[in-house]
Design goal:
The structure is a homodimer of 309-residue chains.
Chain A: H1 2-12, E1 16-18, H2 29-39, H3 43-61, E2 67-68, H4 73-76, H5 79-95, E3 99-106, H6 110-121, E4 123-126, E5 129-132, E6 138-141, H7 147-160, E7 163-169, H8 176-179, E8 182-183, E9 186-187, H9 188-200, E10 211-215, H10 220-229, E11 235-237, E12 261-265, H11 267-270, H12 286-307
Parallel strand pairs in A: 1-2, 1-12, 2-3, 3-6, 6-7, 7-10, 10-11, 11-12
Antiparallel strand pairs in A: 4-5, 8-9
Helix pairs in contact in A: 2-3, 3-5, 3-12, 6-7
Chain lengths: 309, 309
Amino acid sequence: MINKLIKKIEETHAPIVVGLDPMLSYIPSHITDAAYKEFGETLEGAAEAIWQYNKAIVDATYDLIPAVKPQIAMYEQFGVPGVVAFKKTVDYCHEKGLVVIGDIKRGDIGSTSGAYATGHLGKVKVGSKELKGFDEDFATINPYMGLDAVKPFIDVCKEENKGLFILVKTSNPSSGDFQDRIIDGRPLYEWVGEKVNEWGKTHMGDSYSYVGAVVGATYPEQGKVLRKIMKNSFILVPGYGAQGGQGKDLVHFFNEDGLGAIVNSSRGIIAAYKQEKYAKYGEANFNEASRAAVCDMIADINGALEAAK
Amino acid sequence: MINKLIKKIEETHAPIVVGLDPMLSYIPSHITDAAYKEFGETLEGAAEAIWQYNKAIVDATYDLIPAVKPQIAMYEQFGVPGVVAFKKTVDYCHEKGLVVIGDIKRGDIGSTSGAYATGHLGKVKVGSKELKGFDEDFATINPYMGLDAVKPFIDVCKEENKGLFILVKTSNPSSGDFQDRIIDGRPLYEWVGEKVNEWGKTHMGDSYSYVGAVVGATYPEQGKVLRKIMKNSFILVPGYGAQGGQGKDLVHFFNEDGLGAIVNSSRGIIAAYKQEKYAKYGEANFNEASRAAVCDMIADINGALEAAK
């Protein structure tokens, strides 16, 4: 799957991923009105609205991008119907040929992490059958519980040729509360990066590992250091756009081969029509605004990479 | 809800929680056979089996215990139908008057953590309505991303009078990979404990905080230290029984008032009939074996607390 991700990045010339993190407040009223008319102001109505919104954005952008990253929290907020919409979104993106990164940030001990890995990336045995639960291609995971939490995911990834992005240095302001604390002269996130590099060697694709890392666009200096520590790992970079990261901040997340990073934007793409820059599209053409924002993001990042050569 | 949890612990004289972490391999064949007959060897069939299994165990034990802790990973492994079974289990336990601790170990940045908090503990606004998603009473959360990850949960807990257990020192063997690393002379888990204590002061119940901690039974010495650091916090203690913890290891997780900790057992209770000790019940009476195991666990812990007085 890391090989497929790289192939798709090369084909699209777009080292980006669109974060499908729908909030009801982003969704144009013609979509929510239609959904509530059919299902009422219910969790099912909300789930229908986010599914229709996602579908329109995917239809308008899938030919430009290698991957999407649905954030499962935005679906879980609507309970079971929300989770149904998550699964519909995953399946639809697969139909469109996209790589799906499940932003699930799971992590637990041994058999419990195994259950998450099975449900999101693998197959569960039911009687004589082996069945897929959510079936994403990659998942983000939380390393706080150590190797026990990570290994069951790596084991499932080896069976399924799927991959991981492990949280190393997250994009949020308080990520430093624990991640920046100094241990033997180096911040915790560097130690986690060292482990990601070590774990990554156990499951290599053709040129990069199936085990990647999450490092926030908002911390470019740290990204530069972590790029060197995790030589073989792809870095998933959240925090572009709405959180403040720009193309020029991101060049050091990439390797000299122009690969090694994939930059996520969520709100900046899916709610582009709310920005002054794309206001001309209007609410009715929100999906066209998203397409324009994807084009601009690709140009910004590729321009920065060219300029840095 | 922390007041309700304490009241129920006092009424039952049982500082324990039953972990509803069903694996298909635990479930007696008369239950799986019936479920597969109705739904086939499908995810729906597996979900029906875990729901019927849970229901039988809850029916056999609810009068003895204050709380249950369903581990959502064990449900997510069966995709959407598994999540439906999780929700049915939460609702049924509420009907039976039990406090429900959602073992979800979520954690993300700002608005995303807010979405998890809303979905699991709060209400989401859909049009003019405010609706509950999963509606647990407590949730476990992962602190790796810092205060940004935790604060949205605390905010929702304040609105809803609900609570949290934050991962501090987990019960698994490799929990030390990062949690034990030394920062300014103290292990990371102590620094997380200090933060839990600080965060806990912002949302107090009558005698304890709504913000608790997770500390594994397998680390009694660390539990002793953390008990002192987090004076006002309840400690949720996993790792009893199958993972190796015993009553006598646990006395220092409690305060002198006999409160302050709630000890979880999952496999040791729900799959008790597989142990030699409870084999006489047979597979057919698995729920009676669970009841006997609950009684023994309560006696073990209360005995240890008495002996330590």
